[in-house]
Amino acid sequence: MALAIKYSHLVGCLKNKNMKIKNICCIGAGYVGGPTMAVIASKCPDINITIVDINKQRIDAWNGPLDKLPIYEPGLSEIVGQTRDKNLFFSTNIDAAIKNSEMIFISVNTPTKTYGEGKGFASDLTFIENCARQIAAVAKNNKIIVEKSTLPVRTAEKIKEVLESNSDVEFEVLSNPEFLAEGTAVSDLLHPDRVLIGGEETPSGQKALNTLAEIYQQWVPEDKVLKTNVWSSELSKLAANAMLAQRISSINSLSALCEKSGASIKEVSRAIGMDSRIGSKFLNASVGFGGSCFQKDILNLVYLCRFYGLDEVASYWLGVIEINDYQKDRFSSKILLELNNTVNQKKIALLGWAFKKDTNDTRESAAIYVADKLLDEGALISVFDPMVSEKQIHDDLIYLWKSKDLSDTKMKDKLSRIEVFSTHLQAVKDSFAVAVLTEWDEFKEYNWSEIQDSMYKPAKIFDGRNILMGNKSIINYYPIG
Ligand code: NAD
Ligand code: UDX
Does the C-beta of 132 come closer than 6 Å to ligand 1? Predict the structure, then answer.
């Protein structure tokens, strides 16, 4: 009897033992795939990680000089330098990487749909489905699939359906959303507030979940690894981004009231943030939030709510986006108003194009919308950003104009009135106004008297990030709120 108990216990232990992961494949070498895998590689030297992408240029750049990686993040090139070609590899051979790996992260883009059902709101899951089909087509043995991309609730179910109806091998699908913020990605990954893993509530689902948890626990304390069911994990990601963005829209809405009432948004923000129930983070008033996540994820949340008939909930979250659009528009209108309602043929300098400091990412940056509105008014726009190229700035505007169906002639005209400079002094020279649109640290160090001396008078400074508040040398200063 005793022997029988011991034997069954041993079998149970063996069954529950986590899978040993030796090879990981990550599909998608972007802002999430690159940094996330580089950090896992540095913390788990026994695991070989191959990041694959259909974009050959991006993979070549990942394999190229460390000071020219496709993504700029503080600390990233050092980690890539330590791990690349040891246990971290970048490749376009997607099939081979899938075949060789026991665990596959899907970290491809999930942009807002620009066509058909759900246009302008729902996530476009084409790239996700393509990955699932490719995995099913080439997988020869059982795999754990990890959703790293941000996805609508119940996407795991759809991925599993595609996988299982196209392959004979067994798949477990986990949700493991990423919470890193750009500009601080490496430190967020090294010291996460939490790691969230959702798995199916079956023995094999839990085994897969624990296998992934074990990888993170190489450097993340066990109590920070949160295990939930798949749907909670998927929804928590959308909810976290919505709540963060909601704080910014709340403070930005109050900044408009401050400008009318004589209150100062910096003081209001400090006063409310010191309430420990509210907290001080994400209460910086700004020209409006940007980035590839907040808007896209809230739109997706709005779509999901409407899909389930929760129209009031959908309207509530849509309000966060509406205030953000209002804030970007309000900022541009203020420049126009303060320049006597005409910027026609006037040079306006924009300092900063990235959606926040310490990143070269410009997706949904407020700068794109501010520039566009001023160009509509006939302005001559000059731009300086320490990390963003002229080509990127042009591409961002052209992408926006195409979405608005602008004619080629109109696009050409607007493009001819935008000039990108490699120093801030060139950008501001002979301008009528300077608008600070990204909170780059170096902007605070500039000689602002020299800048204002080189401008037409009255030389007006519009601070969309409130980083120059308190700089006594600046005259004609217009902060937010
Ligand atoms: P990205 O556009 O920078 O990278 C995605 C990459 O996937 C691209 O290089 C693209 O070429 C590649 N790709 C697309 N389809 C492919 C396929 N079938 N096979 C191989 N490669 C393919 O996107 P990102 O910013 O890294 O975001 C990825 C996901 O992570 C999104 O769902 C996003 O919402 C989520 N997310 C992003 C952030 C962020 O800060 N950027 C943070 C958390 C979560
Ligand atoms: C966000 C989430 O923070 C992160 O957890 C998620 O994984 C991806 O989306 P990210 O968009 O990279 O990260 O940067 P974040 O720091 O959140 O900033 C987003 C935008 O809000 C930026 O334009 C930023 O300048 C703006 N912002 C942020 C404000 O305007 N005020 C604030 O107080 C904070």
Answer: no
**Residue 257, C-beta contacts closer than 8 angstroms, at least 6 positions apart:** 263
Tokens of 25: 């494949």
CB of 362 closer than 6 angstroms to any ligand 1 atom: no
Give the span between the Cα atoms of 24 and 69, in whole angstroms.
21
Q: How confident is the model at residue 19 (pLDDT cuts 50, 70, 90)?
A: confident
pLDDT of residue 16: 53
Q: Considering 73, 147, 178, 234, which one is annotated as catalytic?
A: 178
pTM for the structure as a whole:
0.95
Task: Note whether 437 and 352 are within 8 A (CB).
Answer: yes
CA distance 153 to 310: 15
Residue 293 annotated to the active site: yes
Collapsed DSSP state (helix, strand, coil) of residue 175: strand
Tokens for 1, please give them. Answer: 């009897």
Catalytic residue flag (residue 200): no
| 248-479 classified as CATH 3.40.50.720 | yes
**All structural domains of the chain with their residue ranges:** 15-220, 248-479
Closest residue by Cα to residue 148 from 282, 33, 268: 33
pLDDT given for residue 4 in this prediction: 43
The C-alpha atoms of residue 433 and residue 423 are separated, in whole angstroms, by 16
pLDDT for 124-182, tens place per residue?
A: 999 999 999 999 999 999 999 999 999 998 899 999 999 999 999 999 999 999 999 99
Is 237 one of the catalytic residues?
A: yes
Helix, strand or coil for residue 47?
coil
192 ligand 2 Cβ < 6 A = no
Q: What is the CATH number of domain 15-220?
A: 3.40.50.720
Query: Closest by alpha carbon to 479, among 220, 258, 293?
Result: 258
Question: Terminal CA-to-CA distance of the chain, rounded, Å?
Answer: 77
Which pLDDT does position 2 carry in this prediction?
44
Whole-number Å distance between alpha carbons of 431 and 50: 48
